[in-house]
Each structure stands twice: as C-alpha cells, then as structure tokens.
Write a structure and sequence with these properties.
This protein has 201 residues and is of the alpha/beta class. Helices cover 29% and strands 25% of the residues.
Length: 201
Amino acid sequence: MDIMKDLRRNIHPIDFDAFSHGQINSKLWLCEKLEAYFKTLAAKPLSVSIYGSWIGLLPFMLLSRGQLQIRQFDLYDIDQDAHVTASKILDYWKFAADLKINHHVQDCNHINHSENQSDLIINTSCEHILTLDWWNRIPSHTHFCLQSTDMKHPTHVSSPESLEAWKGSLQLHSQQISFSGEQFVSYDTFSFRRWMILGRK
C-alpha cells in the first residue's frame, strides 16, 4: 500500500493563490484597520459574516491575531469545495467553547438577514459579484468592511474605475464611512489598485 497516495486522495487540494502576496497583503491591511476601528467602539463580542469566504484564510488571520472579540463567524461561498478546505483550515477553533463557525453554501445576493443578523459584514470579493443585490440587502446600521480592485482578471466582473466611483455606486454618505483608502501594488509584469471602505451602513 502506498500510504502517501492514500493520503493525497483524502486531502482536499488548496488553491495556493489564497496565500499569494496580493491576497495576504490586502487581508493584513483589512485586519489592521478593523482592529483599530472596533477598539474605539468598545464593542461586545462580534457576530461576523464573510461574503465570498473562499478557503477561510481571512477568519484564520483574524482569529490568529486575537485582537477582535468574535463570538460567531458565518462564512458564505457558493463553492462547496472551498468550505471543505476552510473547515480544515479553521479546525483548531472547532473546539472553542465561546466561538461558533457556520458554513453556508449560498450566494450572498440571497441572504435572508431576518435569519442572520450580523454585527459586521465583510466582503473582500466585491469585484467578483456583478450586481449590488448583496449590498442593498444589508440592513441599515450594520458595520461593514469592503474591498475591491481594478486588477484585470477574467473573474473580475465588477471593477470600479476609482475609489470615489465605487463609493458613488454604493450610494455611501461621508458620515457612513470611518475609513476609505487605496493601496497601489506593483509587480514586474503588472500592477493594480486595491481599495477598502470601512464604516456603518
């Protein structure tokens, strides 16, 4: 019996692009801004929904840093396989008595917020979603943290032209925004801008 072959058949493949420089850089940026934001609010332990949660790297980073009090994660992604990987990556916290992690194989455009009322909604995959139905369904007064980009990619179907254009499409007023910013990322063969908006709807 080839033990390694048997192991490989039972380990779900990981999309290692999730660990690329650009992915980690943008998520670290988000973690730092979120931690500073909630430190000023003296908030209770949070219920957090992540849209387009992929393989669960963002909740892994937030939990590992230990700077936010989080009582529940609701992870939404249409890819069942991504949830399988996320479940393995987040396995350590399955045994945490004060934390619940829920996986939803679901399109975030159709979430019923009367059933799941999160304190904070994170979407770092805005460029992958064609409509704003997901945004329009988020209840007023909900904390949010969003990221998008102008990077050219076949799966980027909704890339804003600029940070200001993106704010306009979301119909956000200045009093709803606690932080908005831009990062310019440059590599040898291409470059792109990454935007983030943090606030309360």
